[in-house]
Design a protein that fits this description.
Layout: H1 3-14, H2 16-33, H3 36-47, H4 51-71, H5 79-99, H6 106-135, H7 139-161, E1 171-172, H8 176-179, H9 183-192, E2 213-214, H10 218-229, H11 231-242, H12 256-262, H13 277-280, H14 283-286, H15 291-323, H16 331-358, H17 361-381, H18 386-400, H19 403-414, H20 421-447, H21 451-498
Antiparallel strand pairs: 1-2
Helix pairs in contact: 2-5, 2-6, 2-7, 2-11, 3-4, 3-9, 4-6, 4-20, 5-6, 5-10, 5-11, 6-7, 6-20, 7-16, 7-19, 9-16, 15-16, 15-19, 15-20, 15-21, 16-18, 17-18, 17-19, 17-21, 19-20
Length: about 500
């Protein structure tokens, strides 16, 4: 075993409890983000709302996920407070799962999903922040594993829900035998709604009753998911007990004090690293920062805004693209595309755990972004091939799977773990996933499904150009910091020592 192997293994053994806890929290995140698409028709029946009304539930979840991501940095001043917030958020997700079957109005359901979305956003930011803080220059490997757990949760959630979904109309009106949609129509609706309702105009032609007797078993799916998620807050609670952060363990000295010192930034400025948006905008902390400092934050955020937007748009609309001309793939066959895409993302993140150890983040990002462009171009060229659409979907998932964790580790490394890059990048990625789905969905609705691949290809080229610009700014930023770092440290150390 090489020296680097021993060092990374030693780091993991030192922080394995915290690491496994953050990984499990991301399983909770994935479990919550993937259930809404398959269950939305049953939830429509439960709330006896129209298809247009129920799609506001998607928006409330996504919007408050962005809010939670942006505010998550406020809860990480110390590791004890971050663990308390993480415990609360993971427990909230289980509570929301348990409460959803009791929401008999679309407004109540939207509020429940807004609360879940906020909790998901906070989990997203805190887990990324704390892993970067723990492992710093070695964080890429552990971030890849962290995002693997999103894929695992996203795979489990639809599997749990599927046995409880209605195969026929779940609101029985007086004339349901004549006008109710067939099971194949309902499956088509479920897959079309995966795009968070952005393509609602294309599917509103199907008759769905809002008045009548509700016959759905989807409540059992949410109660099962609530139970599946309960070990996650239990794991956070166990970590808090081990770190002696609970009242029942207050008679012993806290282990966290020593570990927080060892895991702080190299400069000892633990109070200013990885702050929130508000900490970044503090004029006292911004004084003397070079322009490249802000440009690096903006470029990293823009790249993840686009790439996460591509992931959300592709997962949401590849089914719609497949069932319309020129491909005209059958509804049942096209339904496997979304599953294949998420499965390939999960496999890709598993593979990149090893690759992150062998290769640097810039090389992995170059490989990933170039691969995304090539796959998108080939999908445009072979746009009439059903077989290549499946192959390209799998390869695209493999290529794009590592962009977020690699970009996060790379940007924090460039900024020497002093900025709030994690909060900026996580929020940008969440915002991109929400907004680009709406934009791409609007383009598809107005111009036709054939514009889907063109939009994704253009976005891929833009993201790669921004990455090249990031590499150039990184070079300039490195030279500027090298020239000014001795004087800067001489001025900053007395101030930090006196505080």
């Amino acid at each position: 075993m090489t020296l680097l192997d021993e060092r990374i293994w030693s780091l993991f053994k030192r922080h394995w409890r915290q690491t496994l806890t953050y990984w499990s929290a991301f399983f909770s995140f994935g479990l919550c983000i993937a259930f809404l698409g398959p269950t939305v028709l049953d939830l429509r029946c439960q709330t006896q709302s129209t298809l247009q009304q129920i799609t506001w539930v998607f928006f409330s979840q996504q919007f408050f996920l962005v809010v939670g991501s942006s505010l998550g940095g406020l809860f990480k001043k110390t590791l004890p407070s971050s663990l308390l917030v993480l415990f609360s958020c993971t427990l909230i997700i289980s509570v929301v799962f348990a409460v959803i079957p009791l929401c008999n109005h679309v407004l109540l359901l939207s509020v429940a999903m807004a609360i879940a979305g906020f909790a998901m956003g906070v989990i997203d930011t805190i887990a990324n922040l704390q892993l970067v803080k723990l492992y710093q220059k070695d964080s890429a490997i552990f971030l890849q594993a962290l995002h693997l757990f999103i894929g695992l949760g996203a795979l489990v959630s639809p599997l749990v829900a599927d046995p409880f979904l209605a195969e026929d109309s779940c609101v029985l009106s007086a004339n349901w035998t004549a006008n109710s949609s067939s099971p194949s129509d309902l499956q088509h609706l479920r897959k079309s709604l995966a795009g968070h309702g952005a393509a609602i105009g294309n599917i509103s032609k199907y008759p769905l009753h809002t008045e009548g007797m509700v016959v759905t078993r989807v409540s059992y799916a949410f109660w099962v998911m609530a139970l599946i998620n309960l070990p996650v807050p239990a794991a956070v609670l166990a970590l808090m007990y081990h770190e002696r952060l609970l009242p029942c363990s207050s008679n012993s000295p806290r282990l966290i004090d020593g570990e927080s010192l060892s895991s702080s930034s190299p400069t000892g400025d633990s109070g200013q690293g990885h702050g929130s948006w508000f900490g970044l905008c503090n004029p006292a902390k911004l004084r003397g920062r070079p322009a490249s400092f802000f440009i690096l934050h903006a470029l990293g955020g823009a790249i993840l805004f686009i790439t996460d937007g591509i992931v959300g748009s592709y997962a949401g609309f590849v089914y719609t693209y497949a069932v319309y001309p020129p491909l005209l793939i059958g509804h049942k066959t096209a339904g496997y595309l979304d599953s294949a895409f998420w499965a390939s993302i999960t496999v890709g993140r598993l593979a990149f755990i090893y690759l992150s150890y062998r290769f640097t983040a810039p090389k992995l990002l170059t490989f990933s972004l170039v691969g995304v462009i090539l796959v998108q171009c080939l999908l445009l060229i072979f746009y009439t091939s059903c077989v290549f659409l499946f192959i390209g979907t799998c390869v695209l998932g493999l290529c794009i799977s590592s962009v977020f964790p690699s970009m996060l580790a790379f940007t924090e490394d460039i900024l020497d773990y002093k900025g709030c890059a994690t909060t900026v990048l996580v929020t940008s990625a969440s915002t991109g996933e929400m907004l680009l789905q709406l934009i791409v969905g609007s383009v598809i609705h107005n111009q036709g499904s054939y514009t889907f691949m063109l939009c994704c290809t253009i976005l891929s080229f833009i993201s790669f150009c921004l990455f090249l610009l990031l590499l150039y700014v990184r070079h300039s930023h490195g030279n500027g910091c090298t020239d000014s770092s001795p004087n800067t440290e001489m001025k900053e150390r007395p101030e930090s020592g006196g505080s």
